[in-house]
Amino acid sequence: MAFRFHIAAAILALVFTIVYASDPSPLQDFCVAVPDANAGVLANAVFVNGKICKDPKLVKPEDFFFPGLNKPGSTANPLGSNVTAVNVNQIPGLNTLGVSLARIDFAPYGLNPPHTHPRATEILVVLEGTLLVGFVTSNPGMNMKNKLFTKVLNPGDVFVFPEGLIHFQFNQGHSNAVAFAALSSQNPGVITIANAVFGSKPPISRDVLTKAFQVDKNVVKYLQSQFWWDNHYYP
C-alpha cells in the first residue's frame, strides 16, 4: 500500500507541474490565505481570488502542509464513498496557485455520484480496486444527444474530467477502491446534481421539476422528501 501511495504522489506531483490552472496566475511568490473568520478584522488587507493574503512575514511552513491523506475516509454512508478534499481551506498556502487535491475512498459498489466542478478540470488516478468512471458532454445542439465518455479503470490508470462537465466514479468491484484526484483550482467547488436539484432549500417548485423530468408530481415529491447525502469531507 505504501508503494502504491508513493506512485500516486509522484503522478500527482507531475500533474501539478503541467496543469493549466483555471485561476489567474499569481503576481507574487505566494498569497497564503487568512482564515475567513479573521478576514473581517484586518485593516488594509489585499483580496486575491476571494481570499485575503496573510502578511508574508507571518507565513509558516504549516501554511503549506496537510497531514494524514494516507488514512482512508469513512465510507459508512448510503453512497458508500468518501471524498477527502484538500483545497485552500485546508492548506491556505494553495491560495492563488490553481491546484488542489482529493482522496476518494469507495466501499464495494460505492458511488461518487454525478457532480460537477464549476471551476476546475479533474485528473484521477486509481490506486486500488476497479472503477467505472465517465463524464457527459454539454448540450451539443438542437435534437442532439449529450454524449457519455466512460471507461473502466484499474490500478495505475488515469482519466481526465473536463472542467464543468457532469462526471461520476463507481466501484464495480467486490473490494474497496481508492483513487486520488488533482484539480486545476485551489477552490474547485462541487455541485452534486441530485442534491442540488432535489435537496435544495427552499425546494425547487414541483411544477418546474415535473415539467423538466417529465414524471408524475408524486415522483418529484418522493425524491424531494429523501435525505440527499453529501459524501465530501473537509478536514
TrEMBL record:
Keywords: Apoplast, Disulfide bond, Manganese, Metal-binding, Secreted, Signal. It comes from the Eukaryota. The keyword Signal applies. It is found in: Secreted, Extracellular space, Apoplast. Residues 1-21 form the signal peptide. Residues 67-221 form the Cupin type-1 domain. PANTHER family: GERMIN-LIKE PROTEIN SUBFAMILY 3 MEMBER 3 (PTHR31238). Belongs to the germin family. This is Germin-like protein. It comes from Coffea arabica (Arabian coffee).
